[in-house]
Amino acid sequence: MNWTLEKAADLYNIDKWGAEYFSIDAKGDVVVSPKGSEAGPSISLLEVIKEVEARGHSMPVLLRIENILGSQIRLLNETFRSVITQYDYKGEYKGVFPVKVNQQEHVVEAVAEFGAEFNHGLEAGSKSELIAAISMLGNRDAFIICNGYKDEEFIDLGLYAVRMGYQIFFVVEVPGEIDLLIERAKYHDVMPSIGLRIKLATQAEGKWSESGGESSVFGLTMSHVVEVIDRLLEEEMLDSLKLLHYHIGSQIPDISDIRAGAMEACRLYEELVKEGAPMGYLDLGGGLAVDYDGSNTNSQSSRNYTMVEYCSDIVESISTVLDKHDIPHPTIITESGRAIVAYSSVLLFNILDVSAFEPSELPKRIPETQNDLLENLMLTYTMVSEKNIQETCNDTLFYRTQARQLFKHGQISIRQRAIAESLVQHIFIKIREISKTMPHIPRDAQEIIKLVYDIYYGNFSLFQSLPDVWAIDQLMPTMPIHRLGEEPTRPAIISDITCDCDGKIDKFPDIAQPKKSILLHPLKEDEEYYLGVFLVGAYQETLGDLHNLFGDTNVVSIHVNDDGSYNFSKEIEGDSVEDVLSYVEYDLKAVRSRLKALAEDSIKKGYIKPRERKTILRAFEEGLRGYTYFEKE
Ligand SMILES: *Cc1c(COP(=O)(O)O)cnc(C)c1O
């Protein structure tokens, strides 16, 4: 069988999860096409890496492709617009980007810039996010939605923004908030636009199903809603009640949950109109999912709908419910975060080393051992065949346990144990080879085959750069970004460089079930091997932590021009060792003087010579200023 680029695309499924933004070019490199692979220019990630390294930035690098973010905002807005026309819906669509999904200045700035054309606004869930949003948006036709628990200062900041002409919605999340809002509005003499966040009974499938449903910690119950309406009536402020909001969770894989949520919310919207509130805005929160595994199904890492289906189902559900009662169509707001930013970032890193699943050569003569352990293993090895594969699986696993036991009780030596180990590995490999041609592979053999993999050590920290992979088993598409014209032959898992055994990627998205290993290429002498983890733009950056004191990676943003050239629009140096030490409260001045004192003391006690002190202190100084990740000489 000849290897082809099509086979590579199939193996990594890039044409599915890549959403036309990522594909493989004729050279076998992964290319990025911010306008889709048909329409616009494509640039090779390997070329970008070379340019980045030439500028002095080491791997790992988080690469942001600005225009992909722009393309996603455009896709969301244009799809809603065309669906609205198609259904003759009378309201408009206005999206907001929830700052919490990626708060980085450059990302929020890009949202404001690319969103300007569509008056795409921002959603803030805290004072910090609100200040960021107010300072970055600069568009008075776009909305700012204030969610989250609000103290007096939060409310005041929002009210000042209203005074400056911004369109702010204050969403009441807990009943107690309304009194404070009324009081501050009166104090500032500003008429606020008020929204209510409600708890829906609808509960979506998926990882975040807890954020919706009646058990959700967020939002008002029906009796709370009635209380708030009564309070507003008392104050003659019901005129400011304009928006209804709900959020049933992120990454909702099933379109029927999205429909059910919209229908349920509309019933309540109808009631609020009947109560006399002016309303006019329905905010459906986030949930628009990303197809991480490319399966287009209702699995947790996917979604069983397209953007067109998402938008049409929302528009159709709203008009179906409200038309029955002649209620004017509201402006539709959604707070899509993940779907807007996930595609625009790729984590790029090099492989530092491989621990291959390669058993050592067997000795010519098998030494005698207790219970004939090695003889039996050798016999099993020679006997593996299609016919007795089940039996050999059982035997091998039995002898493997026996070897461990005998060693523990001092009945075999370390050398004998090593031979046993490599015999077991030889058998595993033989089982794998033989089963390749078998139409039906017994379950035990399948399990054994899964144990045959190499460990590729990647220059990154899972905890810093892919926290969701660690914490909630999020699947992210992962693959080599070059050499795709060569057949990858090594089944592998990827380990990071923290010394934590959880710091590994050993689940890879696949159509049916996640795979336990992926095929990679053997390393070449004198050539770096680069991998990319894709669709990492949502949630990963600020959730990451300083495990083992690996800090922020270098971040590079590129803007792809129509003629196929690209500019480095931002380069942000990652954390130095000095930076991460200061994050954990080290006083760097004191660290330096302690190192100096230690070196001086070492001279006095005769450990080192005075001129070594200079070399040593210089090395520590460079260490403090250096990148926290593995750097090439
Ligand atoms: C997190 C969150 C969002 C974003 O959801 P996505 O699924 O990422 O689009 C939107 N609204 C609220 C209230 C949220 O908490």
UniProtKB/TrEMBL annotation:
Transmembrane portions of the chain: none
E.C. designation(s): 4.1.1.19
Chain positions with N6-(pyridoxal phosphate)lysine modification: K100
Domain called Arginine decarboxylase C-terminal helical: residue spans: 577-630
Keyword vocabulary terms for this entry: Decarboxylase, Lyase, Magnesium, Metal-binding, Polyamine biosynthesis, Pyridoxal phosphate, Spermidine biosynthesis
The protein's required cofactors: Mg(2+); pyridoxal 5'-phosphate
Database matches in Pfam families: Arg_decarb_HB, Arg_decarbox_C, Orn_Arg_deC_N
Top-rank taxon: Bacteria
Lyase is among the record's keywords: yes
GO molecular function terms attached to this record: arginine decarboxylase activity; metal ion binding
Function: Catalyzes the biosynthesis of agmatine from arginine.
Family indicated by similarity: Belongs to the Orn/Lys/Arg decarboxylase class-II family. SpeA subfamily.
Name by which UniProt lists this protein: Arginine decarboxylase
Organism of this sequence: Desulforhopalus singaporensis
Taxonomic lineage from the root: Bacteria, Pseudomonadati, Thermodesulfobacteriota, Desulfobulbia, Desulfobulbales
